Amino acid sequence: MRATTGDRVTEALRLAEADPRRSVPLAAEVLREARGDGDFATASVAARALGLAALHLQDPDAAIRQLRAAAALGVRAGAGTLAAEARMRLAFVLNVRGRPRQAIREIDAVLRDPGGDLDGASLARAQAQRAAILHQLGRLDEALAGYRAALPALRRAGDDVWVKRVLSNRGLVHGQRLEFAAAEADLSEAEQLCRRLDQGLTLAFIQQNLGWVCSRRGDVPRALGYLDQAEQQLRALDSQLGWVLADRAELLLSAGLVTEAREAAQQAVSEFERERREIALPEMRLLLARAASVTGDHPGALAQARRAAGEFSRQQRPEWAALARFAVLSARLAGGLGGPAGLTAAERAADALAAAGWRAAELDARVLAGQLALARGQAGRGLGQLRQAARRRHAGPAALRSRAWHAEALARHASGDLPGAGRAVGAALRVIDEHRATFGATDLRAHAGGHRVQAAELGLRMAIMDGRPGRVLAAAERGRASHLLLPQARPPEDTALAGALAELRSTVAELGKLRSAVPAGRPAAAARLIQRQVALERWIRDYCRRQEARPALAQLPGPVPARLLARALDDRVLGDQALVEFAELDDVLYAVTLAGGRLRLHQLGPLGPVRQLIDRIPFALRLLARAGTSRDSRAAALALLRDAAGRLDDALLAPLAGPLAGRPLVLVPTGPLHPLPWSTLPSCAGRPVTVTPSAALWFAARTAEPGSCRAAPAAPVAVIAGPGLPGALAEAASIAAVHSVAALDGPAATVAAALDALDGAGLAHLAAHGRVHPDNPLFSALLLADGPLTAYDLERLPRLPRLVILAACDSGRLVVRAGDELLGLAATLLSHGTNQIIAAVVPVPDAETTPLMVELHRLLAAGQPAAAALARAQQVARDASPAAAAAAGFVCLGG
After folding, report:
1. pLDDT tens, 246-265?
2. Mean pLDDT across the stretch 50-60?
3. What string of H, E and C letters represents the secondary structure of 798-825?
4. Spatial separation of the C-alpha atoms in residues 251 and 448, rounded to whole Å
5. pLDDT by residue (tens digit) across 153-181?
6. Edge-first strand listing for the sheet containing 836-840
7. Which residues, 6+ apart, have CB-to-CB distance to 270 below 8 Å?
8. How many CA atoms lie within 13 A of 205 on its CB side?
9. Could you write out the DSSP letters of every residue in 529-569?
10. What is the mean pLDDT of residues 857-876?
11. Mean of the pLDDT values across residues 134-143?
């Protein structure tokens, strides 16, 4: 039996918010029939369905035309309620198109002159629609009042569609006001109603909103999960993607993933422009301004913020305009363009942001105003602003509380309470560390360290002003590689992740074979494989980011007391070692030495010249390593290497010669010092040198298990060789012979076999091509017989080897993020249980590593500690060839 016209138009209206592409032909058919029959009431509903579908299918102009037609048909039918329903939706679409004044006039006209026959539910829908427009304009208090007024009447009328809509919108207002429990309650009820009403499209929007709320409260894994679900559903329905991309961009920026955030924000801008959603564009420009500011691109931030401010003003959105004006002010001050009026402008901005309900931005404005006032000697004025900002340190998301504790530290420091300021800095750092310990993904933990930078820098500044070496050491330790010390969340056996990693290996291997067989041909086939590789890497990355940390949060580690470090430095084999911890502040390099039980603080000088010299070392080593380099070029490269190394030695270690006094060294680099091959420095030649991300990590490795820095005789030894590496098979065979074991090589050296061999080994040697992935260092890999062995693979091992030797180019190179947070193969090994790594931090000539590696293993087998064995093997290589680039590129990392 054919459905009645009423049933069909009701279904078309439902589909407009469930599957708009299916709604369009049904609504168009009903509209034609109803017009032909003179049934203008049914025609009005059909036209409204077409208007709603057009809105969701990125054609707001068509939506405006259809909704105006629906209103006219309602009037022609003598049905004021139908005309009002169409005008309500028309008002919303006008707002979407960036015409807020017209939208308010339209909805107010409905409320003032409804035609005399709007019932309670219709009036409530109009009130709710007006609240939604006010909401988008940033008038949150008025919007919330409108939602609250409309909801009881809608519930009484049993209008579940509009109840769901109001709950979803009200949940967002609660989220903007940081009322997260209320937000999730509203959105969860709306989600249940959506499922009951079978509205798939609206369900995607609610999942997106849940993701946004989770993002605001700092629950990154859950937020990513909701946003991924929403994006998949919206893509399946070919619906609007702008807002889900916008929410993803904001989430990524909050997690410190700035590059990804900018990319998502640019995609959102493109979507909004395509969807002609002018109301959303300035919000994305504001986010782009924030991202540019984080990366130090202050001119870019200023340009985006100014454009956003202008658009908000034209759209008559004063609350949002206040946020944009503060972004303009921040960019100007950061770029040195503030002028004397900056303090007053910052204070006014803070008050305007408070009035508009922007709590996080208000806090930042008050901190800025406070710092400006203190810099001008106006202590009372500055303290007033800082203390207002510090009020938020006990409640709210972790990022907000941490910034408020930072404000409290600034206030205490300015008022002379230095111990209290130190405690406040510790609280700011602890809030962030406790929060990111709930993340299961290593890269999220590392990038979230960016939120620690300002507080850690304040702590270091106070310590250097104090001048006591112990305080400087502790402050420097709080500001570096902290995620490596957090409790690690190894996932249980995860078949989905294992399957994706296996498929990635297969794809990369197939791509390699294709390129080897047809280097210049079959570009289409190669492009398909590359596209598949990118998609798999994104899936693995996002899947791991959605995982929450499983272990219960343990006591977070802090800086190790100097007396315990001094005790650990006295090694029964190496003798009395010396610790050197480098730190940078205001582009000046400092060092704290701990030698012979005594701490000393040294100011070494500007960091700029050191950066330039460090850049010369890899260049010289590459020239020395390159086959076919002429004699003159090799001589020039050797002279460049010796000059740069000598000048670096004068800058970094020569001023410390007295305390170091020939002792074996434990070096803790900062920033640009991480990629330095230390053995090239004259002071390090032939000297045992251990390079570690932090003294705390070194101490943890030293004290975890006696003798763990040496390969225990009873522990298994794994020797693994990958394909395509000149001399790898011979190197592996020679090293295996030293330890009387069989090498894993050839087709048998698969990733699965290698992981089995590594699990529980005491010593592991891997000779394979290495690849550093700069965008996502967890995809840095060693190439084995069936594809890449990535950091993601290593994270899944329950027992990593105590000592790992990576005889591959760049395998020890660490990717440094904000706050000296480190990522890469070596960082993964160190954070998951490996005590020491010997690896190259610069490109090395693969064929020339064999003599160095064989000598190294002979010394290890004879019981030499790893750092001493590497120093001796490098010395032997240098004696054989003064330009031994292969030897110079390796460092001993860890404990």
Report:
1. 999 999 888 888 888 888 99
2. 86
3. CCCCCEEEECCCCCCCCEEECCCEEECH
4. 12
5. 999 999 898 899 899 999 999 998 888 89
6. 598-606, 588-595, 578-585, 665-668, 689-691, 890-894, 836-840, 803-806, 763-767, 717-721
7. none
8. 21
9. HHHHHHHHHHHHHHHHHTPBP-SPP-PPP-PPPHHHHHHHH
10. 91
11. 87
User: What distance in Å separates the CA atoms of residue 263 and residue 281, rounded to the nearest whole number?
Assistant: 15
Per-position b or e across 138-177, b if 16+ CB within 10 A of its CB: bbbeebbebbeebbebbeebebbbbbbbbbbbbbbbbbbb
Neighbour-count burial of 3, counting CB atoms closer than 10 A to its CB (0-12 exposed, 13-18 middle, 19+ buried): exposed
CA torsion sign, 409 to 410 to 415 to 419? positive
Mean residue pLDDT of the chain comes to 86
Crossing angle for the helix pair 242-254 and 220-236, to the nearest 10 degrees: 160
**How many of the other CB atoms lie within 10 Å of CB of 80?**
18
Res 610 pLDDT > 70: yes
Please answer whether residues 30 and 5 qualify as being in contact, where contact means their C-beta atoms are separated by less than 8 angstroms. Answer: yes
**Token pair recorded at residue 581:** 């911890």
| Cross-strand pairs, 719 | 765
Q: Is 715 exposed, middle or buried (0-12, 13-18, 19+ CB in 10 A)?
A: middle
Three-state secondary structure along 164-176?
HHHHHHHHHHHHH
In single-letter form, the type of residue at position 44 comes to S
pLDDT value at position 579? 94
CB neighbourhood size of 518 (10 A) = 12
Helix (H) or strand (E) holding 849: none
Q: Span 118-128, mean pLDDT?
A: 82
Q: Report the C-alpha gap between 612 and 619 in whole angstroms.
A: 12
What tens digit of pLDDT does each residue of 457-478 get?
999 999 999 899 999 999 999 8
Report, in angstroms and rounded to the nearest whole number, the Rg of the chain calculated over CA atoms. Answer: 32
What is the maximal distance between C-alpha atoms in the chain?
102
Instruction: Report d(CA 489, CA 437) in Å as an integer.
Output: 9
- The first and second tokens of residue 20, run together, are 């708009």
- Please state the φ and ψ torsions of residue 23, each to the nearest 5 degrees: -70, -40
Please report, rounded to a whole number, the percentage of residues in the chain having pLDDT higher than 90. 38
Backbone φ, ψ for residue 522 (5° rounding): 50, 50
* Cα–Cα distances in angstroms (integers) from residue 668 to residues 680, 778, 803, 893, in the given order: 17, 23, 19, 10
- Token readout for 603 is 């100011």
Lowest mean pLDDT among 123-127, 166-170, 590-594: 123-127
| Residue pair 473/581 in contact by the 8 Å Cβ criterion | yes
Confidence of residue 706 (pLDDT cuts 50, 70, 90): very low
- pLDDT confidence band for 1 (50 / 70 / 90): very low
**Exposed e or buried b per residue across 855-874, where buried means at least 16 C-beta atoms within 10 angstroms of its C-beta:** bbbbbbbeebbbbbbbbbbb
- Residues listed for the chain: 895
Mean pLDDT of 576-587: 93
Q: Are 446 and 812 in contact (CB under 8 A)?
A: no
Neighbours of 716 (CB within 10 A): 17
Q: Is residue 229 over pLDDT 50?
A: yes
Nearest Cα residue to 754 out of 734, 732, 774: 732
What pLDDT, on the 0 to 100 scale, is given for residue 814? Answer: 67
CB neighbours (10 Å) of residue 61?
11
602-607 contact pairs (CB < 8 A, 24+): 602/655, 602/656, 604/651, 604/652, 604/655, 605/651, 607/671, 607/672
Q: Is 717 helix (H, G, I), strand (E, B) or coil?
A: strand
**pLDDT for 624-659, tens place per residue?**
777 667 878 878 888 888 899 899 999 999 999 989
Q: What is the mean pLDDT of residues 663-684?
A: 90
In 3D, which of 141, 130, 169, 165 has the Cα closest to residue 17?
A: 165
Which amino acid is present at 249?
Answer: A
Q: Can you tell me the distance from the alpha carbon of 476 to that of 470, in angstroms, rounded to the nearest whole number?
A: 10
